[in-house]
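Lecture notes, structural biology module. Today: joint structure prediction for complexes of two components.
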Amino acid sequence: MNVAAERAGNAATVACDQDQDALRVRLGGDWTLRQNLPGAEAVSATIAAATAARRLTFDTSALGRWDSGLLTFLLGVHEAAQQKQISIDATGLPEGVQRLLRLATAVPERGGGRRQTQRAPFLARVGSGWLALSAATSETVTFLGEATLSLLRLLTGRAQLRGGDLLLLVQQAGAQALPIVALISILVGLILAFVGSVQLQMFGAEIYVANLVAIGMTREMGAMMAAIIMAGRTGASYAAQLGTMQVNEEIDALKTLGVDPIDFLVLPRMVALILMMPLLCVYANLLGISGGFLVGVGMLDITPQQYWNQTIAWVRINDFLLGITKSIIFGIIIAVSGCLRGIQCGRSAAAVGEAATSAVVTAIVWIVVADGLFAVLTNILGI
Amino acid sequence: MVDPAPIVVENLTMAFGSFVLQRDLTFTVARGDIFIIMGGSGCGKSTLLRHLIGLKSPAAGKVYYSGESLWDSPIEQQRQILQGTGVLFQRGALWSSMTLSENIALPLREYTDLSAAEIRDIAALKLALVGLAGFEDYYPSEISGGMQKRAGLARAMALDPEILFFDEPSAGLDPISSRLLDDLILELRDSLGATIVVVTHELASIFAIGNNSVFLDAESKTMIASGNPKLLLAETKNPTVKQFLTRGASAALAT
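The predicted structure, tokenised, for the full assembly:
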């Protein structure tokens, strides 16, 4: 019986032979992690096959350098030997290896400590998925309820906003968002005008580019683009702020002092976005229309006066009001999803990242869903 | 009539879902005690604290504050009970967007009708008590970990609570700061007459300040010893407790 894995030069070698009731494992060469080490399987197989063996000894006269690579190999051998109840005589190993091996085997592995990666049956997975979904839904609904109550408390004067906090949040969600909202809205206006002009030129109706851009921006794109920018910018930052506070036990500290985290953290953020979103929406509308104006006047031979008259004549106040109403709803969606994900955040750095991601995704999904509902409703109501 | 004890815990069972962490915990914290909750890592010390300070509801059993059951009270009353307590969290848990002074001012603004100037004076006093005079306008991220912890203590004391909770006060502190914090805890008990509950596994502090304790055991999932830690060390027959209180020396002697 002989298993050998010979390699050229200083490569690690292992051979195993049997002498009556003793198995002898001969190790040679350099046993370091940087080498291509032979696995313990070959020796384990020999041990498993050896019927009469009672002892296992080592011969390391040809062993060169060694490190953890040798130890993992020996642990594999150790395990195989234990299964066959073969006693191990480690005296043939270098002194350091013997001591490390004793250390590694001193504490027996904790029963049940190792994670089982068992695949649950299909029905069980469906069941636990459903339970998780219903738990998450009830958590979300609870949060929405608490946020609504908090808003009501504010309106009836039973909750207070701390002025300094609110102003800071208003600045972050308002003034500081202006540059990016401006850039995106002008570009959206330009794009709408370009796309529209190609089609309308076929009918010689370039002047209607003004209608397209003005109505498109005021009814849809102004509120929508502002909301998507704010979801990525402010929603994510709310989730990260509140998530970090959760990690640092700051939210627990609020609770133990009897301060309602909803009133203290969520309410001012909701109010800031409810106040700022309509303003950002109007700002986006104006800049989008001026983007369209640039294309219309610069490339389509429409005079500034014509473009202006056309816009004024066709945009109704209702279009503006619709966009502004939407933007308020979108603001609430962004604030609630940002704060919800932040409050639900787990207690690790990775959880904060997930909270921020999930806040943006949740907000954008619900913004689009809400916009769809608006489209259906306004169609039915003829607004 | 005798005053009911500040905190009585009866048959408390703590669980996460179906996983029971500790069961049948029963102990009383007397007025003026420095009560130690001790045990090895992961035995549920901090979780027990979260049950006491109203952050996690028990799976079974009661927590009484001066005779009133915390978890059976309506939310308003719970809030009122907990107003009489202050908590120093493991890493201070100062609100990072506020200065130290604002951190201490927040509970005062919430619960008192004091003017802004008075609140500022009280905040300065509390900071001075923990040796941080002059740091009113610093943000938590601008001071060291030990200072954050002391500022956290100043905030916990903001409303002059009768009961103070400490979660691992010496974790992350050097031996001298840790010793100073122990002295501060003793001083607070003696001067303010506060009752103090400390979660710790730091032997030096346990013997220096504790006069009553429970020992939670992760293996048997319940408390296996209680009483004055110094007496426990001398008298306990339980090998796990003995080993813990002697840093494993008794086990080393036995083998």
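Point to remember: The radius of gyration of chain B is 19 Å.
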